[in-house]
Amino acid sequence: MPPGTPCRTSPEVRALLHERLDALIDESDIVSENAAYGQTLNDLEEFYLDKGRKFLTETFEQKIQERIEQAESDAELKQCVHCKKKRTTAPRKKKP
Predict the structure, then answer these.
(1) Least crowded by CB within 10 Å, which of 44, 55, 58, 73?
(2) Is residue 95 part of a domain?
């Protein structure tokens, strides 16, 4: 996949992300209900900093893995007409 090409999220990954985000919101409701008087904002802030960071990290990991799988599926193997060796058709990176 050339740089700058948008990578679409598969419906399965999108459904999983929605499910996990819904669970995160439900958990934040529990945190806010159980917060001590005057501590709701502090507790929610701490919750979202911790859980939100984990959620974003896992989401980015899934997106990166999806891009890797897409790039690997795009790199087809073809046989060289001269030496009969199989080579990938994926573009090679130029060495600096």
Answers:
(1) 73
(2) no
How many degrees, rounded to 5, is the angle at CA 18 between CA 72 and CA 69?
A: 5
The number of domains in the chain is 1
Per-residue pLDDT of 44-88, as tens digits, reads 999 999 998 998 898 888 888 888 888 777 766 566 666 666 555
Nearest 5°: the CA angle 28, 29, 35 is 85
Distance CA 79, CA 96 (A): 28
pTM: predicted TM-score of the whole model, two decimal places: 0.55
Tokens linked to 53: 């960071």
Q: Which two tokens stand for residue 95?
A: 């060495």
DSSP 92: P
- Domain residue limits at 76: 11-88
Distance CA 16, CA 22 (A): 10
